[in-house]
Structures are given as structure tokens and as C-alpha cells.
Amino acid sequence: MIQIGEITLSFDDPMALALMAGAAILLLILILLIMSVRATGRSARMTEPLARQMGDLGSRVQGLSDGQQQLAGGLAHVSEAQAAQQASMLQLMERRLAQVQEQMTENLQGSARRTAHSLGELQQRLTTIDKAQENITRLSGDVLTLQDILSNKQTRGAFGEIQLHDIVSKALPSDSYTLQHTLSNGKRADCLIHLPNPPGPICIDSKFPLEAYEALRNAQTERDLTEAARFLRSSVKKHIGDISEKYIINGETADGALMFLPSEAVYAELHANFPELVRDGFDKRVWIVSPTTCMATLNTMRAILKDARMREQAGAIRRELGLLFGDVERLGTRVENLDRHFSQAAKDISDIKISADKAGRRARRLDNFDFEELAPETDPSIVQLSDKATR
Questions:
Q1: What pLDDT does 146 receive?
Q2: Closest CA to 208 of 287, 270, 261
């Protein structure tokens, strides 16, 4: 318990506890105030240099403020100049952009025109390519068909005969040859040229050793090449022998015949790598010809036929020349007679002109004659008329 004057407080009393707490707080506040006053004094003494520094700092801040105002004015001028420059730059850029845009528009239009023209040309070329592709496709089909034809011996023979017929028909007159002519021995030649004696009619037979030639071209090894060459030699020799036996008849045909090869490649292969076959044909009087050499040979035969026909017609030509000479003589005589008649007619016409001139002159004198101016009676040119005559 606590005794304050006449008041006695117990520790168990809340009022006593509150008073004690309030007193403690007041005491604490007084202590803090005293301490604060002391600290304030010390702080005042310590802040005097700081106040002087703050004054100096204020003067500096004022100087900075003046400088800032000057800087702000300069910045304003710079900003205005920059704005003007930026505006002029923008105008220049706008003009430049307009020019660039116009130029780009023109370039784009020109590019568009050129592109359209190029596309048109490309379309035409594509059309041409399409047509060429169609032709190539059709030609491929024709080549396949030709391969099918040449793969069969009968059709291959027909192909050679057709080619021979085409060459002969272009080189010779139609009455100078016969196709598929049958000889006295019963053999049928592909073509018989009616040449005069000598040499006489000459036979042409078409042969095409394609299988042997293809085997030679497709040979991969030395053995295959040897076998193919042997095959080609035997095939060509057989053809030469057959033509020599079948189409050379003494007294009926010429003493030689032609073997037509419808392939320049086979002909060139024989002359380049198989000269013994060509010599064998010479020995048996069988001349090997290709489409090119056959045309040249037929042109020579055409000259022979022309010369022979001119010799055959020599008598008729001489007879016709005699008749022509007689006609020319008679024509000369008749021309002379006509010239004589013309000369006589010219003389008669001249005499007629003289008489006509005299008659004209007399007519003009009569027209100008004056009947009142009579000539004297003594004029011997005036004939006196008797009374009887006047009566």
C-alpha cells in the first residue's frame, strides 16, 4: 500500500495502478524533455557550420538557377531552330519521297509492261514448245511404228521396195522401168530398168540386212563383235550370190545387177569396215548402192536412155529435117513471088496516083473556068460547030 497524504492506495486497486502509470509516464516525459533540450543545444552549436554551408549552397543554387534560366533560353532557341530545321527536313523528305514514289510508280508500270510482254512471249514460246512436244510425241509414235515395221522381214522388204520405187520414179521416166518384173527364169525383180543394148536391161533388187547390222552395233564384247561381223558377212554374201544367180541372165538382162540397201548407215559400214564384201560384189557383177548413190546411178542411166532414144529417132529426125528443108525452099519461092506481086502492085499504084493527080488538076481548071471570056475564033484550039451540029 502507498500512503499519499490522506489518500491511501493499494496495489490491488486499478486506480492506484493507473495513477502510478501516469506518474511514470510524466516522469519519463520530463526526462525526455530535458534530454531533448540538451540535445537541441548541442545540435544548435553543431549546425552553425552547416547553416553557413547551407547559405553558401543557397547562393550556389541561385547561381545554378540563373544559369538554368539562361540554359533554358538557349535550349528554347535551339529547340525553335531544330523545329524549323525538322520542318524543312520533313518537307524535303516529303518531296523526295514523292519523287521516289513517282519514279517507283513509273518503274513499276514499266516493269509491269515488260513483265506482261515477257509473259506474252513466254506464252507464245510455251505454245510453240507444246506444238513441238506434240510433234515429238507424234514422231516418237512414228519411230515406234517404223521400228515395228523394220522388225519384221516381210515389212522390212516392203519398206525397201517402197523406198526404191520412190527413188526410181523421181529419177526416170515412167516408161523406162518396170516394177516387180518377172524374168524368164520365173524370178521377180523389184525393178527392171529398160536400158538399150549394150548394156541391156538391168535389174535392181532391194536387200536390208538390218538384223546383222544391229547385232554389230550392239556388240559389247570382242566375241560378240566377231560373231556379229561373221553374221553380217554371211548375210551380205548370200544376198550378193542370190542376186547374181537370179537377176543376171545372158541375152536377157545386162551382165550386172544392182543391190539396193535402203540404209546409208549399212552402206557406209560395208565400205568402211567390210571392203572384201564390196570386192566380192564386183567379182559377181553385183553393184551395191545406197539411196544417195542409187539416185546418182539412175541419173546416169537417164542420160544413157536419152542418148539411146535420140539415136533411135535419128532417122526420123533426118527425114523430118529433109521435109523441113523442102518446106523452107517452097516458102522462099512463095516469098519471092509475093515480093514480085508486091512490086507490080506498087508500080500499078504509082501509075494510078499519077493519073489521079492529072485528073485532079484538070478538074480544078474546069472549076475555075470563066465562060464569058471566050477565046478568039482564030484560036486553033476552038472547034467551030456547024448549024447541023447545033441543031
A1: 45
A2: 261
Handedness of CA 146, 150, 152, 153 (dihedral sign): positive
Residue 96 lies in a domain: no
Cell matching residue 34: 530535458
379 C-beta neighbours (distance < 10 Å), count: 9
pTM here is: 0.43
Q: Which residues of the chain have pLDDT under 50?
A: 142-146, 148-149, 371-375, 377-379, 382-383, 385-391
Within a domain: residue 53? no
Contact 216, 232 (CB under 8 A): yes
Residue pair 156/262 in contact (Cβ under 8 Å)? The answer is no
Does 112 reside within a domain? no
In a domain, 330, yes or no: no
C-beta separation of 168 from 177 below 8 A: yes
Cell numbers that stand for 19 in this block: 495513477
Angstrom distances, CA of residue 294 to CA of 209, 228, 247, 351: 17, 27, 17, 78
| Confidence (pLDDT) at 203 | 92
Cβ atoms of 213 and 265 within 8 Å: the answer is yes
Beta bridge partners of 8: 3
Give the chain's domain count: 1
| Dist. CA 241–CA 244, nearest whole Å | 5
Q: In which domain, by residue range, is 185 found?
A: 141-317
pLDDT tens, 136-182?
A: 766 555 444 445 445 555 555 566 788 888 888 888 888 888 888 88
